[in-house]
């Protein structure tokens, strides 16, 4: 089984502007849409879309629970969330300007979780997770969830001997590296934050590869670089028109872990995950991608082994 853990869930509110964003002017919206938010949820959605069984774990606020649940049900996610009483799940605002590539993301901090809430989540995780499982922890940590709570969670998972994947950033990612997890996927900015802003990307990757079995450093339209088992790979992706790149990394991680769980070879897994993410960026919302399109794009992805000295 694959489990995803979203500690700081969100509902994505997509704001489609009639024109481009201009200060000191009324910026009218042409439409508003809602989509699933939270990086673990996005990963779960990618896996479910690929027909790979998984369950989304984490927290959810109770005051707007029906709003999040409506989206979870629409997206056909299998979930079991710890309810945090009297708090709303935050909204993340994704601003999409007319005829402009990419998106602007604005997020709320999220509700505060108590030590009791954290205990409930830990109990659930203790109960469910077994050695053969894959667990993805993704996204930010909510107020009240401290680094030592993450460390404890990681140790619970380490004791289970399951495969631990982390899509985290900043001090949380540093902690995951320190504890030693099986997979991380920092983007170009996130890796600079935790290793060095001066070193070339490949040097930073080399450094992380000493501690982590699978490292993928994603670079948006530039593709990614990966290290595993002493080997280094350069992944070049096809050119597509990117409408909304928010969630590209989440889609990549979901598809990567889904394929890995099916026992597919690494090079194929890297190409397929890149195909899925390249499909994703062509859609306006945070989650949608086409499996058919992904398979066509996969054929245009180049995975080359790098000769290292
Ligand atoms: P997220 O918003 O999900 O956190 P991220 O910043 O972690 O995203 P990116 O590096 O932006 O992740 O993208 C992840 C992967 O998605 C890239 O390595 C690439 O394979 C694919 N991708 C992203 N943008 C594009 C693009 N414009 N064209 C083709 N592929 C893309
Ligand atoms: Mg990005
Ligand atoms: Mg990311």
Automatic annotation (TrEMBL):
Entry keyword set: ATP-binding, Kinase, Lactose metabolism, Nucleotide-binding, Transferase
Carbohydrate kinase PfkB domain location: 18-288
Pathway assignment: Carbohydrate metabolism; D-tagatose 6-phosphate degradation; D-glyceraldehyde 3-phosphate and glycerone phosphate from D-tagatose 6-phosphate: step 1/2
Top-level taxon of the source organism: Bacteria
Alphabetical list of PANTHER family matching this protein: 1-PHOSPHOFRUCTOKINASE, 1-PHOSPHOFRUCTOKINASE-RELATED
SUPFAM superfamilies: Ribokinase-like
Enzyme Commission identifier(s): 2.7.1.144
Reaction equation(s) it catalyzes: D-tagatofuranose 6-phosphate + ATP = D-tagatofuranose 1,6-bisphosphate + ADP + H(+)
Family note: Belongs to the carbohydrate kinase pfkB family. Belongs to the carbohydrate kinase PfkB family. LacC subfamily.
Organism whose genome encodes this protein: Carnobacterium antarcticum
Family matches, as InterPro entries: PfkB_dom, Ribokinase-like, Tagatose/fructose_Pkinase
Protein's name in the database: Tagatose-6-phosphate kinase
Pfam families: PfkB (PF00294)
